[in-house]
Amino acid sequence: MDHSIMIICEQSEGRILPVTYELLACAARIGGFYNSSITAVLPGNTPDTDAISGADLLVINSPGLAEYTAEGWEKAALLAAGELKPNIIIIAHTSTGYDYAPRVAALLDGSCITSVSGIELSDGSIRYRRSGFHGKLDMLYKEGKQPLVITVLPGAFPAYDQQAAPGMVRYMNADIQPVHTSNVHFSISDQSNTELEHAEVVIAAGKGIGKAENLELIREMAACFNRSAIAGSRVACDNGWLEYNAQVGLTGKKVSPQLYVACGISGSMQHIAGMKDSKTVVSINRDPDAAIFKNSDICIIEDLEKFIPAFIREAEKHHEGRV
Amino acid sequence: MKILVCIKQVPDQESRITVDPEKAWAGYAENASYWINRYDEHAVEAALQIREKLPGTMIDIVSIGPARVKAAIRRCMEMGADQGFHLRYEHEDYLSPSIKSRLIAEFCRDRDYDLILTGVMSEDMMSGQTGPMTAARLGIPSAASVMKLEVDLEKQCLYVERELDAGHRCFMELKLPALAAVQSGINRPRYPSLSNVMRAKSTEIEEISYDDSLLDAKYETVEKVLEAGSDRAGLTLQGSTAEKAAALWQLLHERSLI
After folding, report:
1. Which H helix or E strand runs over A15?
2. What is the ipTM score, two decimals?
3. Which domain covers residue A78, as residue numbers?
4. How far, in Å, CA of A57 to CA of A171, rounded?
5. In this structure, are residues A51 and A77 in contact, taking their beta carbons and an 8 Å threshold?
6. Would B241 be classed as within a structural domain?
7. Nearest to B142 among A103, A291, A307 (CB)
8. How confident is the model over A111-120, as pLDDT tens digits?
9. What is the pLDDT of residues B77-116, one digit of tens each?
């Protein structure tokens, strides 16, 4: 086997996080094509780690890797790459992954494709799919200089669950100390939003609502449904229209209600990542090309300020009829 | 202190895109309007806020692209930046962030920037690579998705707060020089003041030449651009506003959602 794939585990205090198995599934698909060896690299400071199925595990231990720093992870990745000579390096597109993955690509002078959502095998080569232009277009990339560093969107690949024998586990003791980074600490802020987390109907506001006053329309629409909550896109929260604990998306909350109504949301992949498991999706947007329509069951090309009042009147009509 | 803000000019979000299979690249309608990448506008604002606290700070702007990019650089100067630099690249095609970061790193050498700021990603390509790659090529630390930053000149460090998944935060100090790729929630970009607009008018944007051979490196390429795939059935409601409202109510009612 000449072709080698290296994945870098997503971990928390030495524990391998589930998204790692999605990276493994991606690696297995590419590996099946190139007949590659697959090694998972675990940077950290853990004496004992269980073997994993489908890949060998290289544990890089150093006291300086006890917690994540871009610097530490970059050094661990370079050390592992020197050892494994990978053709492809696979990293999760998470807040740690996109922080250091491009640095690794630059330092190895390889190619880099971030937020990969799929791979396509054809004509004897692999194309990497990712989304851009506010989610309106998909782009197919071809690798260039090796190694190729890719970051894979969480949720893009189903977790690896094949019954493969556990791989070998190897430990490397390294002396990695961040020198440019200090005083690292974390805050687990209370971002809970019980109403949103348990809602069966979510009415979400995006940039398209235009102003804070229009949030009242969103609230009134939510009031038409039982067990409903309101939410917002990143822009809606950045604009201060909603608290960040109501943000749905890659860096916000992941919701999967019975009904998700996207109001004036463009539909970038960052937002889709937070609501794609909703049972029914309705989108209201005046831009007929908005990417959100590609992810909707019911599409309404309308101005929100006109449509929502019309819908509320409709709902009231039926409500009165019933009484 | 000297700050560099790297900006990109991107097409307005609602501009119509046309896909040209021949060029394997997306084009915009001729009347498309271009704007500063929203995330980069936050980076400019962050630089201006640092200068307010540390008078004497110089803020430079750099951007890569065709002649139209000058308008975006000029806008940053209208917001209050001191100088603008333009690396001309005429083609409307895919330029790898690996190459962009090499051009910017080359530009930075001997200019002694203490701090480099940029947006966390561009609105069109959304790769988020150019910033961290530039820092890596310069051998300086970087942080992506920064929600707060503060310079401590005495300690020669940059205090940053990064946004993590699910709303958590990470705090750290980076030794200067450093690069921060800022997230949109960090601040509210200001509107240009009249005096800055006047000043920007009379300030030349300097064109910087670079080694063309840097463009030849064979990094990843975009081979095909296509309309985003559809994951759901996508029934588009027709008729007047009231008819659509009635149709939506009916559909939701049939599914026992209302």
Report:
1. strand A15-16
2. 0.93
3. 4-173
4. 8
5. no
6. no
7. A103
8. 999 999 999 9
9. 999 999 999 999 998 889 999 999 999 999 999 999 999 9
